[in-house]
Amino acid sequence: MSTSNPTIDVLWDQWIKSKDNEIANQLVEHYLYLVHYHTQRIAAHLPQSIEKDDIRSLGLFGLFDALHKFDHTRDLKFATYASFRIRGSIMDGLRKEDWLPRSTRDKAKKIEQAIQFLEQRLYREPSASEVAEYLQLSKSEVEEVIKDSLFSNLLFIEDKSTEHQDNYKEGIGYNLPDDRNPSPEETIVNTENLNDLAECITLLNENEQMVISLFYKEELTFTEIGKVLGLTTSRISQIHKQAIFKLKKSLSTAFKNLL
To answer: Is the pTM of this model over 0.85?
Structure first.
């Protein structure tokens, strides 16, 4: 039915005609790199207790779903469509499982209270080290909790913002039809939030700016960024957490107004 080394175009032709499971498995294997890519990126936001294999399984389900639902007559690359489905499947799975432990939520609440208290006492935003010292936690733990809680809030915000759009809901990364144009006031607010965020990024040190830019703009993984900067993957993860803590307030505001 197929040649020993079929091209991807031949596989697609065979799949469209036959819907054969063996052809589907070959296509899935070809596009498996997309699952790995999104697993790596999303795992960077999650607690280490979350198994990557669980995230990968959710992504694989999204890839199979994309293969069966892809409309080849549309002017759209499958890799682009599959990325939407894979990311959406992972995000939906995370929302349903409520992956953030209760202990982390409790710590996040205490950290937020500590930040507010220290802001009033110091007349400025406290550093992660100052928050950690006040709560008798490690600096790394404070940064990790802030990162996890921010990502959890992002999931919750998007879930609420799309709950009335069941016919179109695809998860984070999907383009949802916009049934109205933003008002001039909303456009101004969103622009100001993005400008504030951009200004805050300039206050980060050079490595932090590079990590944020390479991860969110260039969409590199931590391992790839490590190769660019000549640092270990764990060091890049640490720099990312430090940057997220510094950007926490600006990120929270921007996310809430853009989603």
So the answer is: no
